Records
---
Amino acid sequence: MAQTLYDKLWDAHLVEQRDDGTALIYIDRHLLHEVTSPQAFEGLTLAGRSLWRRSANLAVPDHNVSTLKAERDGGLNALPDEVSRLQLQTLDDNCLAFDVAEIPLNDVRQGIVHVMGPEQGAVLPGMTVVCGDSHTSTHGAAGALAHGIGTSEVEHVMATQCLIQRKMKNFRIEVTGSLQPGVTAKDIALAVIGEIGTAGGTGFAIEFCGAAIQGLTMEGRMTLCNMAIEAGARCGLVAVDDVTLSYFRDKPLAPKGDDWGRAEEWWRTLHSDEGAAFDRTLQIDGESIDAHVTWGTSPEMVTSVNGRVPTLDEMPDETSRLGLTRALEYMGLEQGTPLSDIRPDAIFIGSCTNSRIEDLRSAAEVLKGRRIAPSIRKALVVPGSGLVKAQAEAEGLDRIFLDAGMEWREPGCSMCLAMNADRLMPGERCASTSNRNFEGRQGNGGRTHLVSPAMAAAAAVAGHFVAVDALDSEGVAV
Amino acid sequence: MKPFTQHDGLVAPMDRANVDTDLMVPKQFLKSIRRSGFGPNLFDELRYLDEGEPDSDNSQRPLNPEFPLNHARYQGASILLARENFGCGSSREHAAWAMEDFGFRAVIAPSFADIFRSNALKNGILPIVLPASQVDQLFGEMYAAEGYRLVIDLEACTVLRPNGESWSFEVDPFRRDCLLKGLDDIGITLERSDAIRSFEQRHRDRFPWLFEDIVL
Ligand code: SF4
């Protein structure tokens, strides 16, 4: 029978199906970080349990690390925040006690767990991948079944190498044609969420397909699958193709020699069969997508950079009118405001959505030879990993950012969730390449507008949101 | 996990759609390495007028008088009435821990985000999905009557309203069983160790590269 990609991955990891509709699914790779693992390790210890398969686990500190070089250089002991230090120390201690592989804080391979994973080949096509972090959906870009789990599930995976799951439904989102210049995977993600809403994918595994998706690099596919969770789907998927294979060929933990051949044979089957049944489908014309900016406090509150904030009388019901009123109040915006009138105070280029080399290149391309507007109070560029940072420096991108007046930081989650010192002040408005514009996400009272790296760079230069190709006509010439 | 059979509780409102887990427990509290003590910081940014830190003395902080959970009539509430897509966003189980620590045993909403729903169930909190029209009606009744209570019966899968009428809801049978008995998932799965081991052997034969040690 014709199967979807999700069906194939599910079947290949099905330990047993139970009469009550639940199933035991085998987990190939478990990624860990400092925030959602300590309670799980403690649970194991309290119950006298051990890891089912030690070698399935790989840890890295990322959420809570400082991104300042001076603070990083001193190692853990030099971190000024005692509570954070204890959390990071606990990850080290647990990894040591349970003999789990850990990439330490100042290793060049350290980075945001979802950047580090594929970069090391710790995540591969055909795997089941979990992590106590909802953006584990990122790894679906590799043709892996990957999703975020809570801490109880982290402990469950550690102890049993399995998860208790119910099969999700299949949702195919096809993006046809090609993208217009300046439109990126981030804009596809935002356009999809604008279309189906933040709960539109709940209960589904979303497979992204179509010419526009095949045309994306692995980095772009990761950006897209990363945001599947913002559409409510625990996982996003992209079929394996030559782009996937060439990305993984030389990764440190990728199979070598004969194993590569065997792996490739299986990976080549990782696509939905002709005629496979989907529970829901959506088709979007790639050409019709333009650069997007969120204006509210949920990723579905989004529109084209050439659009405007909606008005109350455009809302279909009372709950959405209330939602709009509250969002506008929080965001300090009037209904009907053109997006291009909105002026950010801060710029954040980073996060597991958009901190890979391609993202930095696209921001740098806009910033080259330009300076950020005087109204921008802070502008952080935070590479996703030490390797991304090194690559960017080899290409001279760091100079472009610094010359433009931005800060060039050490890798970590940083202002995506503001657990460390990188955060917005109350009322501060940020053009951010991250994935969540929730109230307080980037700092208590902070206001987030989600955009692509190129759009963040353009906003930095112009001092307001603007399409990249309109920058020159603004008189902000290079 | 505390078993959940029947629960008679005071109802409080969270009257907005898309309540995310960042809102339920802001990031600064995620620095804790413990799983308890999050109750005082549930909905921290809505509940207090100042910015809380992990070491703040919450009893000394200024409360937001406009936030319903601070109102006298909702003190002691154990059932939260909410809107669409409750618990979306981050997978932080701290949100469920905070709900539990605060004293909530159930949340009623038209829909829940998947990860939160699963986290709630693992912490003895029952997420109940009712049609939006019924949730609307519950909001109306609750606002109209101070001391509004509901009786939730997991055995029968019903919500009993004060007027004696009850509505039924659906819950995953496996999760229901775990909740009713207060069972620990890991224990249940480990009973299937033999099945896991034999699957693992076949899996290893097929995909040996997945089983290599990670040498950094
Ligand atoms: S970068 Fe942001 S979204 Fe990604 S893992 Fe870190 S905190 Fe989560």
---
Amino acid sequence: MAEDLTPDQLQRLDAWWRAANYLAVGMIYLQDNPLLAEPLRSEHIKNRLLGHWGSSPGQAFIWAHANRLIRERDLDMIYLSGPGHGAPGVLAPTYLDGSYSEIYPNKSQDAVGMGLFLKQFSFPGHIGSHCTPETPGSIHEGGELGYVLSHACGAVFDNPTLIALACVGDGEAETGPLATSWHINKFLNPMSDGAVLPVLHLTWPKASACGAGPATMTAAPPRMNRMW
Amino acid sequence: MACAGDIPTKETLAAVEILRREIPSLKVRVLNVVKLFALTQPSEHPHGLSDRDFDSLFTTDRPVIFNFHGYPWLIHRLTYNRTNHPNFHVRGYKEKGNINTPLELAMSNQIDRFSLVIDVIDRVPRLGSRAAHVKERMKEAILANRAYAHEHGKDADDVTNWRWSTGPTPGHDGGLLV
């Protein structure tokens, strides 16, 4: 696929991804100075840091390329986020494409709106660190770990034109419900249902393991990983 | 004022400090429960207190506000056949939680210092309307602290850095007994 992309397309995908990553870092760390227009000071940094950086750029990367496929093939596609506390990697794209500001006009696409957008993330009285119901278009919160493939399957039942892109967290992949839901294709009828496209997000450091080690999927030998 | 767990104990002590300042005539006893099984009968668990010991600590007829870190009904289960159980009012976790500061989480579950003061005013018969002004101030403090958390993302410094500062007062049998 990569050889089909022009240098201009690649450059624009990369620029979009880097912008999403900037927003994701900003959501996790910044309560002020969103554009870094002035030198960073400690009072610009949130007192409680709750998002998971490890789950964010990968999701924005998947989103960027899913967007490219949607444009190229005029697809009907929905993204479901599995990895825990990785909402910055999903919220950033919804802000970049304008849908966030459309629903929340005070989170406008300017310095003031962007400041509010970054500050509200995982902040007392505001939105959580998963794709909580406040997230535009969210049907799956994620982060409770284990349901993303089941929900993706539910979304495409009797919905033959829909593709559900399910990003599976590697920590989540260790749960019983998720491990079982790899069998989900046995319940999908290509005649009457849509398609589920699982993407396994291999993050080396887990948020839940306190830095102790990788998830089983990540640590699996290459031959086993090829199974997926 | 009974308590178990670190945050509930801190909030209980902070509530007692407010009560001593605002309602100095009120006699308050603080009981810190380290072993929960002390609450049950000695026939049910080796840590269980005898009825006589339990009655001397928790009294037979005074209101008890018990601040607990777990689900409140556990304390009721452990104390259901104690003499003073009808006067037990237990606060604890009731599934209220979100992106919270520590005090905000406590306030949402009503185990915070301000809610405890309100519980005391509501349950000590002779207080009632005489302490209505204190109750209103506690309600305002809850709103102010919640607003501070939503603006700054942390608790106010006087809450975070709170330390027990008053010793036992003459005429009170305060202090940690258990």
---
Amino acid sequence: MIEVRNLTKVFSPRLGQAISSVSFNVENGEVVGFVGLNGAGKTTTIRIAAGVSLPTSGTVLLDGRDIMAEKTEASKTIGWVPETPNFEPTASALDAMRYFAGFYGINSAEAKTRSKELLGMMGLTGYESRKLRTYSQGMKKRFSLAVSMLTRPQNFLFDELLNGLDPEAIRFFRELTVQQKKENRAILLSSHILTEIESLADRVIFIHRGRIIKSVRPDELTSGVKSGGVLRIVLETVTDDALAYLKTLGRVETQRNTIVLSDFQGDSSQVNTELVTRRLRVQEIRFEKRALEDYFLQLIREVDAGR
Amino acid sequence: MIVRPFIFDIKRTLTSKSVLIIIGSILLISLAIIPLALPRIASVPSSDIPSILYYYDAGGFHFLVFTNDIYGNPVSKSGIELNLFSASNNFNHTVQVSTNSSGIGVSTISAPAIYQPENYDLTIETFPSFPSLEGGSTIRVPISSLPSGTVQSIPGGEFRTVTDRYNASRRNLQVIYSGPYGAPPTDYSIYYKPITPPSVIKGSYNESELTFFQNLTSIRSVYELPFADGLNRGTQVIFSIFKNGNATAFETSELSVEEFRPQLLVQSATSVGSSFFAGILGFLVPLVAIIGSYSSYGKDRITGVLESILARPITRRGLAISRFVSTLLAICIPTIASAIIVDLILNSVTGSLLSNDYLLAIMSGLVVEISAFVGLVFLLSHLLRSTGSLLGVSIGLFIVLDFFWNLIIFLAGTLFGGTQGSALYLQATIISYYANPAQFLNLVNSYVFQNANGLPIQTSNYGLTLSGLVFDGVAWAVVPFLAFLTLAVKRD
């Protein structure tokens, strides 16, 4: 279980508080999405929770152990994947993992076996002996995930883990997260890919300008929010007549022969019929629902408007 | 639990390319002690007293002063003071002579004639070219007013061995002699005779008893000695100058055959060792420490690699201490190994080991220098934001503290009106070394040998005491480390 208590961080008095009195919990068996704009304070919070950054005040408890006061014991319960993994570039993947394993008291033979197993699981078989400086950003992310699982910790902190991962790795990560959740682990996941958070998170915590502004369950995302979706239409030729019609349905943006209709709340088939009636050749028409994104952006607007 | 990463850190530091190169260099440089320690061919020492010819005429004594270096080359602008004294005649007169570009100085002292058994006392004093704590050299010889114009030589000045300028292992013979009234010796010849024990040297020799060597052609001549190689040890060689057709020698001198041959000087282990440690190893160690610290901590700290370790079960303090100690060990071990290698080489070449006390003092000094520079680079890595600035500032620190420190002291001394070579200047230099970890080994050497800049001194008179040295060493070893540790624990 991850308990974040009144975390405040000031990097410099000139810049003010990077995060301010941030408090939330991630229960065991729960996946919590951590959502915010760039600079909102997600990474700062996660880095403090991982024990690599010092809070100005407040603390983080990991399975009841204070990351500040009981750093050694608390760190044993956490697996952290940073946004930009940074490892000793001249070490091979296997050597680096064995080095890290030493901190957890894992003996050399077991460390080697476990490292190979984890690297294999992350699709890095055949790359174990390569120096980490030769790894791509995606491979470093996979390696970082493997390192975070060395001791099968109870809690995970994933900071923009999906950035730089290929679709196969994203699917692997999705399955892994579900598996870890089933094994009753606490997972805090920050990501800009909100659709993934929407599909994985049991709860979403919104942070804005260093403060927690909301914590909601996915089923609460659509209630009380006046949000529609995005209708993407590809026409053979975009005419003024078509644009005039579509502007009556929502906000219109045009990119060559593609029209993106935001805040659309109508029926897409009816739009298709109407366009055909106007003798327009519709090559593609697709409706995308963006509940979390809409919810998030509306929330931000409301908070900023209320400031 | 922390043993494995600790060993990994040491291994990692030791195997980083830059540190490996420098460690290899240090171990190779320790081999440079071999040629330094080998016995050297002793140079013919340049005499403190110049060669002096003199003659008397109605006007008084005329002195011709000749100065030369170890090769027999003339030395100009040498200052010599001549004092002529006679108690019975109530005579006391002093002149100062300076040599010209031919290495010759001429002076006359007007004095009444005096006949044996009475003599004048001639006191010859030379001035050092550089102010030192010691004075120049002084000798006093009796001279008499001989028949007008007859040239005499102050004993020991007419025949001298000099080093061959093209081959330092060969010795030549320098002869300084003139005809009457200082004229070129156009009608004189040199003869010689080796006398090997048990034969004994007689009081005087006739021309027929000696072997012809050379005709004199100028007042100052240098001759090779082809016969010297065949002479046995202990042989004395008689050299005499004869005026042609005159069987009685005008000047006779005897030189030991050892003066014709190069002598091998076996140097003391301590002398060679101290030059090596202070001049080479002590100079390079700060650079090794800077590169080692940058590679093992500074770079990782600034690029964020350390965070991947900090996320493990280790405290900030634990990680900081682990990195510091491992870096310290990684540099100290090969440096101390180098000191031991040097000691063993010195033992095999000179036959003596460095004293344990001195070796311990040197090793302590090296550890202090390494610890100070490792601590400073670790500290800087918490104050600077880029690897480029860290490396630049660290190397700049090395250049200032190691290369330019004495220049800075000189400029500061000049600014405040100090005089280089004065006791106050020396004291200021020594005290400034306290503030410079790169000069710590120099302080150790100065204290151990009670010597500074080659001059014997009592170091306590210049502010260098054992307690001061120990305090300074502990301060340099500990303070940068503690400052670094504070930042590492308290700041991101």
